[in-house]
Design goal:
Mean pLDDT: 80
Low-confidence stretches: 236-259
Number of strands: 10
Helix content: 40-55%
Largest sheet: 6 strands, mixed
CATH superfamily of the largest domain: Beta Polymerase, domain 2
Shape: flat
Structural class: alpha+beta
Radius of gyration: 27 Å
Number of helices: 19
CATH topology of the largest domain: Beta Polymerase, domain 2
CATH architecture of the largest domain: 2-Layer Sandwich
Number of domains: 3
Length: 487
């Protein structure tokens, strides 16, 4: 019971310590590991390779026993707590995860990604956004100068006989904001310690200075991005009309006249050298970096008299093709973005250049994938795996992917785990992954997921034609599936 004049808890310190020690290892630590893994997967699914590098999970923690005990004594929390079970409901930052990113625009990007999470645990999805939990400190700093983006997510953790929701607070900061937090945390945020006025003033001044540097860093990034776009820009307007030009793919058959200057000749020679090593399409940004790496700083900055990377490539390798769809690709003769020889839709091949494991496979192989996922989701199989009436959490997802892979191997079919993982993740993130999904339901959900993903990334060019091609591909996949063996 609470002490006289203190919080009216129905438990004492000894009971609290027993509860904390049990909950830390049965609830809080599992929730932390689960959310850390799933946030990492979510970012990888939602971001391009280039953007993904700007985000890293830098720290995780479960609030310590004494720290949590001190926190629940405060009126803000003690008024909402009577029983031990109510502590996680009242204190939403027992479990925490920190994400570092490069610039302030990355915070906005992360916010957009997080707000796409479902907000209802009853939807049987793997991770959910806790409604009204956003704190936009990077837009409206605390009085101390603290800047960051905070949001809470929930996941379900299995306990004997039940599933319990656990809230995890996600903090995201820029590199500079994180540096300020690391430098001032121990002195500024010790509970109950009244800081001298000078310390508070200095911390705030440092926060404001670093915020100004953050703004400069964002301006610098914007300018570098702009220069990169100009550097690899198309030398002429994109022509439209044919189905190929709808994809903005242009065969550059006429070489640009090469200047006789030594600098231009060196650029052309190195561009040919880089291009000759390609066995498949490569991003223009990568081509630019490889060419410039062979020259002293600034010598290749403006591409000599060519003015752009695209013009240089026209002159150096006119037999190569350039695709101007962002991020843009140089395509060697005899290859294409649709490099796999199969009947997968152009849209899925295009998507594969952003999502490495998108299933740009033949309809027959897609049929194997759909069938294996459907069989893995059969309730009899779930019973064998020891999964009974569970929400679609990470354990469920991983078990399904493994079972699907095992089924493919039994059938003598080779399907990469990464592609099966992409398929299962697509269904899971759409909220449609569930027991006893028929192959037709898996195909329909995959179709919707791929279409939605391509639309989100701005890759849809000819809506009706590409939607029809996608639908026909999944229909052929279903037709390739052998009838189920009779019971």
């Amino acid at each position: 019971m609470g002490e006289t004049g203190g919080p009216a808890f129905e438990f004492g310190r000894d009971e609290y310590e027993q509860w904390y020690n049990k909950s830390r290892f049965s609830l809080f630590e599992p929730a932390l590991r689960t959310v850390e893994r799933l946030i990492d997967q979510w970012l990888t699914m939602e971001l391009s390779d280039a953007d993904r590098e700007k985000f890293r999970i830098s720290a995780t923690r479960v609030k310590g026993m004494n720290s949590l005990w001190s926190k629940i004594q405060k009126p803000k929390y003690s008024a909402r707590i009577r029983t031990l079970k109510e502590i996680p409901e009242a204190v939403d930052d027992i479990v925490g995860l920190r994400v570092k990113c490069n610039n302030t625009c990355d915070l906005e990007l992360l916010r957009n990604i997080m707000t796409d999470l479902p907000s209802d645990l009853s939807s049987a999805t793997w991770i959910t956004l806790q409604s009204n939990s956003e704190k936009l400190y990077f837009q409206s700093p605390k009085s101390s100068g603290y800047r960051a983006y905070h949001v809470n997510v929930q996941t379900l953790i299995h306990t004997p006989g039940d599933w319990e929701p656990v809230t995890v607070e996600i903090q995201a900061r820029t590199l500079l904001q994180d540096g300020w937090g690391e430098l001032t945390h121990e002195d500024t945020y010790k509970p109950g310690v009244q800081l001298p006025a000078l310390a508070t003033t200095l911390a705030r001044r440092m926060a404001d200075l670093l915020a100004t540097v953050d703004d400069i860093a964002q301006d610098l990034r914007d300018e570098l991005d702009r220069l990169a776009e100009v550097s690899i820009a198309s030398p002429s307007p994109i022509i439209s009309g044919s189905s190929k030009s709808a994809n903005q793919e242009i065969r550059l058959s006429n070489a640009t006249t090469v200047s006789n200057s030594a600098a231009d000749e060196a650029l052309v020679s190195e561009a040919r050298n880089v291009a000759s090593r390609l066995s498949k399409p490569a991003a223009l940004a990568s081509i630019a970096q490889n060419i410039q790496a062979s020259f002293d700083r600034g010598d290749a900055k403006n591409w000599g008299s060519f003015g752009s990377l695209a013009s240089l490539l026209q002159a150096a390798v006119p037999e190569y093709e350039i695709n101007y769809d962002p991020p843009g690709y140089l395509i060697p003769p005899g290859t294409s973005l649709e490099s796999e020889s199969n009947d997968a839709p152009t849209l899925v091949h295009r998507l594969k250049w952003r999502d490495k494991f998108a299933p740009a496979v033949s309809s027959d192989q897609l049929g194997h994938m759909i069938e294996s996922i459907s069989r893995a989701l059969n309730r009899n199989n779930l019973d064998i795996l020891g999964i009974h009436d569970t929400p679609v959490d990470t354990r469920f997802h991983n078990a399904i992917v493994k079972a699907a892979r095992d089924y493919c191997e039994l059938k003598g079919t080779t399907v990469s785990r990464s592609r099966l993982n992409y398929l299962s993740n697509s269904l899971r993130m759409s909220g449609k992954l569930s027991p006893d999904m028929a192959p037709s339901e898996v195909a329909e959900a995959l179709n919707s997921s791929l279409l939605g993903r391509a639309t989100l990334l701005g890759m849809l060019r000819d809506d009706e034609s590409e939607k029809r091609e996608l639908r026909e591909w999944t229909e052929r996949a279903l037709e390739s599936i052998a009838p189920a063996d009779p019971d």
